[in-house]
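We were asked to recover a plausible sequence for a given structure. The inputs and outputs are reproduced exactly as logged, with field labels preserved.

PROBLEM: sequence recovery
POSITIONS: 367
GIVEN STRUCTURE:
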C-alpha cells in the first residue's frame, strides 16, 4: 500500500487552501480516492472491524500492510513520537519533526452504527462513569449511532518519515529494536446517539459529561453526546525496525520499504505474559501510585516501578488500557478494583501489538 509520497505532498501544498478538497483515501493512495457519503452504514460489533473499514476509506484498501488504526490512548502524542513495543509511553526525545498539515477526510463524514462496546472504544467510554453519576445508563445490548463531521487526517509522508528515522541521533538510539511510531491522527467531531435509561434520582438536566456536550431527551429517552470541537480520536501507528549499523559503514538514508513492519506479522512470543504498568502524573502524590499498585497486586502481576509522566501527556480521567481484545475481561476486572478509589475509571482498548495480558493503568492528570 502506498502512503502519501513526497511528490504528492508538494503538489498538494502548491494548491491554495480554498481548492484543497482532498478525501482521506487520497492521502494514502490518490488513485483509489472515492466518495461514499450515501452508503448504508453497517453494524460494527467489534472495533477491529470498524478500524478496517476506516483504514480502507483512508487508503483505498482493506489490506493495510504498514500501519494500524487504533483509539488514541489519551492526550495525543506529537506525530513522530516513538513508543516501546507493547506500550503507550513515549521513550525517546532524540527524534523530532515538524508536524504535518491537516487534510480533509470527507468520505469519513458518515454515520456508523455501533454496538455499545465499539462505541466505548471509539471514545464514549470516558463518559460512562460521569453518566452513571448523573443517573443515566446505557444497556449492554444498546445500538449506538456515531456520526462524524469535519473529519480530517494528519500523517507523515514517506519522505518525512524517512528523514525522521535517518537523523543520526534518532537512528542511533532506535536501531536494533522493534518500535511503534505515531504516524498521524484522524480527527473529527463525534456525535454519539443512543437510547438510554434515566433513574428517578437523575439530575434534572445535563449539558456536560466528561469532555463532551450532552443532552437527554425525556420524551424519546435518547441520549446525545458530542464533541464541541474536533478531537483526534484515532491514531495511525506503524511498527518500525532499523537494523543495527554495520561496523565500518556510513549510514545511508533510511529506505522505508526495509524498516516498516507489517503490524500483524510482528513476532510476539506466545509464552510471554504481559505485565500491568502503572502511570501517574509527576505532580501526583507517589502514595496514590503505591495505593493502586497494592490494590492490583492481589490479582495481577504488576511492574515493579511506577512511571511518572508529564501532566500534558496524562489523560483527564483514570483509565485501564488494554492492547488485545482477548484481554477485555482482565481490563474490566482492573477497572472494578480501580473504581474503589477512582469511581470514574474506565477501560480503553488500544489495539496495538503487545504481549497477551499486558495492561497499563493511567491515573488522572493533575492541574
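RECOVERED SEQUENCE:
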Amino acid at each position: 500500500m502506498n502512503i502519501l509520497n513526497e511528490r504528492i505532498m508538494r503538489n498538494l501544498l502548491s494548491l491554495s487552501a480554498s481548492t484543497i478538497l482532498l478525501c482521506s483515501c487520497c492521502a494514502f493512495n490518490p488513485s483509489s480516492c472515492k466518495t461514499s457519503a450515501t452508503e448504508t452504514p453497517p453494524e460494527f460489533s467489534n472495533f477491529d472491524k470498524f478500524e478496517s473499514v476506516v483504514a480502507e476509506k483512508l487508503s483505498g484498501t482493506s489490506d493495510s500492510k504498514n500501519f494500524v488504526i487504533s483509539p488514541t490512548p489519551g492526550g495525543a502524542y506529537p506525530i513522530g513520537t516513538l513508543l516501546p513495543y507493547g506500550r503507550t509511553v513515549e521513550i525517546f526525545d532524540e527524534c523530532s519533526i515538524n508536524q504535518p498539515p491537516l487534510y480533509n477526510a470527507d468520505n469519513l463524514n458518515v454515520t456508523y452504527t455501533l454496538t455499545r462496546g465499539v462505541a466505548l472504544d471509539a471514545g464514549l467510554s470516558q463518559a460512562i462513569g460521569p453518566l452513571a453519576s448523573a443517573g443515566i445508563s446505557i444497556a449492554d445490548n444498546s445500538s449506538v449511532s456515531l456520526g462524524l463531521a469535519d473529519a480530517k487526517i494528519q500523517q507523515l509522508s514517506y519522505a518525512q518519515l524517512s528523514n525522521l528515522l535517518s537523523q543520526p541521533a534518532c537512528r542511533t538510539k532506535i536501531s536494533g529494536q522493534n518500535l511503534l511510531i505515531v504516524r498521524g491522527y484522524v480527527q473529527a467531531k463525534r456525535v454519539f446517539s443512543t437510547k438510554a435509561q434515566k433513574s428517578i434520582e437523575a439530575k434534572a438536566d445535563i449539558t456536560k459529561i466528561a469532555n463532551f456536550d450532552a443532552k437527554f431527551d425525556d420524551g424519546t429517552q435518547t441520549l446525545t453526546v458530542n464533541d464541541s470541537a474536533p478531537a483526534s480520536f484515532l491514531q495511525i501507528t506503524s511498527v518500525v525496525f532499523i537494523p543495527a549499523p554495520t561496523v565500518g559503514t556510513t549510514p545511508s538514508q533510511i529506505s522505508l520499504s526495509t524498516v516498516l513492519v507489517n503490524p500483524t506479522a510482528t513476532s510476539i512470543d506466545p509464552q510471554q505474559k504481559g505485565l500491568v504498568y502503572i502511570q501517574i502524573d509527576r505532580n501526583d502524590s507517589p502514595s496514590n501510585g503505591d495505593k493502586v499498585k497494592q490494590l492490583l497486586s492481589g490479582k495481577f502481576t504488576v511492574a515493579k516501578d511506577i512511571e511518572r509522566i508529564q501532566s500534558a501527556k496524562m489523560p483527564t480521567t483514570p483509565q485501564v488500557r488494554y492492547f488485545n481484545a482477548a484481554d477485555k475481561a482482565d481490563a474490566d476486572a482492573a477497572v472494578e478494583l480501580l473504581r474503589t478509589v477512582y469511581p470514574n475509571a474506565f477501560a480503553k482498548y488500544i489495539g496495538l501489538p503487545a504481549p497477551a495480558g499486558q495492561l497499563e493503568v493511567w491515573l488522572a492528570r493533575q492541574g
